[in-house]
């Protein structure tokens, strides 16, 4: 499970020349006890279209499960706890 620690609003021009709008979501995951201690940070980008398909409104403090497909793309985000800050 991942804890959302930050959210950035992102806008850029895609390779096709169209504007892409979305959010960069920063999160932490616990480091496996066999490898170390503490939390590791990571981030994902979800376009506004993908957020709408997932029916997901990220907020700092949420605990989520991020599911990836075989290609490493985000397939789904499930809210485990919405204890937002």
What does this structure look like?
By secondary structure, this protein is mainly beta. It has one helix spanning 48-54; strands spanning 2-13, 19-30, 39-47, 63-68, 74-81. It has one helix and five strands, in the order βββαββ. Strands 3-2-1-4-5 form a five-stranded antiparallel β-sheet, covered by helices on one side. A hairpin with a 5-residue loop joins β4 (63-68) and β5. The longest helix is centred in the middle third of the chain and has 7 residues, at 48-54. It starts with a strand and ends with a strand.
Short description:
The protein is 8% helix and 55% strand.
**Average pLDDT taken over every residue:** 94
Order of helices and strands: EEEHEE
Global morphology: globular
Work out the number of β strands.
5
Question: Which sequence of strands runs across the widest sheet?
Answer: 3-2-1-4-5
Report strand %: over 45%
Individual helix count: 1
Residue windows where pLDDT falls under 50 for at least 5 positions: none
The rounded Rg comes to 14 Å
Characterize the main sheet.
Answer: 5 strands, antiparallel
First and last CA, distance: 17 Å
Percent helix range: under 10%
Main structural class:
mainly beta
What topology does this entry show?
Blueprint: E1 2-13, E2 19-30, E3 39-47, H1 48-54, E4 63-68, E5 74-81
Antiparallel strand pairs: 1-2, 1-4, 2-3, 4-5
Can you tag this structure with a few keywords?
85 residues
């Amino acid at each position: 499970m991942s804890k959302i620690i930050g959210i950035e609003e992102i806008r850029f021009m895609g390779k096709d020349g169209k504007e892409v709008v979305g959010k960069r979501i920063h999160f932490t995951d616990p480091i496996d006890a066999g490898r170390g201690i503490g939390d590791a940070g990571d981030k994902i980008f979800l376009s506004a279209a993908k957020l709408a398909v997932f029916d997901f409104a990220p907020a700092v403090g949420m605990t989520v499960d991020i599911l990836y497909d075989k290609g490493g793309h985000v397939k789904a985000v499930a809210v485990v706890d919405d204890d937002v800050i």
